[in-house]
Amino acid sequence: MKYIPKMYQKSIFDISYDKLKEKGIKCLVFDLDNTLGLIDQELPNSDVVELFNKLKKDFDLYILSNNSKTERVDKYKDALGCKAQNKALKPFTRGLRRISEAGNYKKEEMAIIGDQLVTDIYAGTRYGIITVLVDPLGEKDLWVTKFNRIKENRKLRKYKKKNVFERGKYYEW
Ligand SMILES: [Mg+2]
């Protein structure tokens, strides 16, 4: 199922990165807005910086954002000391392919982490890598995301009815 994540946790702080490492993941690709920070938050919180510093020991870290503003993404990139790309057009997989080529990662060594089913998770599934969903940090979305949320909510209702997936019911790989 293309919109159902492999792993689902409340936030980036609840993900068991040890498990991802154990499974052979070497490259983590993070969404930015509502995953690493609120959409109007200029810089990441210190606990996000701390988490990234810890994760760097075990993983290569990337930000892949659909946000069109280069300066916004660059601020996170600099604060977190990782590589980043904006205007990613997820669910298109070009951004993921570029990362995979640049770092020479096999698909089974990559995971995408994000808050949206129809962009982050769908992009990951299409590309054939591990997908990790988190809950959005805030209620406010970028205007483009608003349309995606409508689509997402429709899917969520369907999945809940079929008992295959529900927001708030977290699970491990
Ligand atoms: Mg997002």
What does the model show?
- By secondary structure, this protein is of the alpha/beta class.
- The chain has a single domain, classed as 3-Layer(aba) Sandwich (Rossmann fold), CATH 3.40.50.1000.
- It is 39% helix and 13% strand.
- It contains six helices and six strands.
- The chain has helices spanning 17-22, 46-55, 70-80, 94-103, 117-127, 143-162; strands at residues 7-8, 27-30, 60-64, 83-85, 110-114, 130-133.
- The mean pLDDT is 96.
- Residues 31, 33-35, 114-116 line the site of magnesium ion (MG).
- Which fold name corresponds to the CATH topology? Rossmann fold
Helix-and-strand structural type = alpha/beta
Rg measurement, Å:
15 Å
Uncertain runs are none
Q: Tell me, briefly, the overall form.
A: globular
